[in-house]
């Protein structure tokens, strides 16, 4: 693969005539975690959805190594995990994972499932349990496990830690880091939890009202105090 798996160039996006994102340029690279930070309403989810091909750019472009963003989403090259827990509550863990596997990849399902279980052992222990009986954290892990069944190259994660206890958040963030490093996945991580996101990210972009106010290496921001953060956001 030449070039980044997914990138945005001068991307503008929004809803109807309303423009939410203004000329955002980023690159998601294999094996790296790009954190997207910013206050509520800054445009983080809009950015992810446009990168995923769920929304069309109003101007600028999203370039995907696998072709159009919609084709990449359909083929599983790009996978979007929304902040709402999206699992089938009446199905078991195994059934949820199988349902997420593209029909053409059914033969690979056992290997992919083993890999998801490696990242989230609780899913293996409770593989015959209905997902609706799971805690919020376990459902979030199952959502990411379902994304892995598509063997993606790009993982777009919208606020994976939302509403979870700190210890569960730590486990999730550690798994995100491992996923990028071990699977050579390009991870784009939208997060409100700045400290934890910076702990696992390689690069960071900060959005304010849909505009990039900072982009660079994550370690450059890890030493900022609260006042400096407030000024940046
Ligand atoms: N479906 C929609 N139709 C119209 N406006 C929308 C829609 N979804 C979001 N917006 C608006 O777009 C702006 C950016 O929203 P977005 O959800 O991308 O921000 P965010 O940074 O992800 O915020 P949060 O952290 O609260 O999810 C907000 O002003 C929001 O009200």
UniProtKB/TrEMBL annotation:
Protein keywords: Amino-acid transport, ATP-binding, Nucleotide-binding, Transport
GO molecular function terms attached to this record: ATP binding; ATP hydrolysis activity; branched-chain amino acid transmembrane transporter activity
Recorded superkingdom: Bacteria
GO annotation, biological process: L-amino acid transport
InterPro entries in the record: AAA+_ATPase, ABC_transporter-like_ATP-bd, ABC_transporter-like_CS, BCAA_Transport_ATP-bd_LivF, P-loop_NTPase
Every ABC transporter domain range: 6-232
Signal peptide: none
Family stated for the protein in its record: Belongs to the ABC transporter superfamily.
Official protein name in the record: ABC transporter ATP-binding protein
Organism: Acrocarpospora pleiomorpha
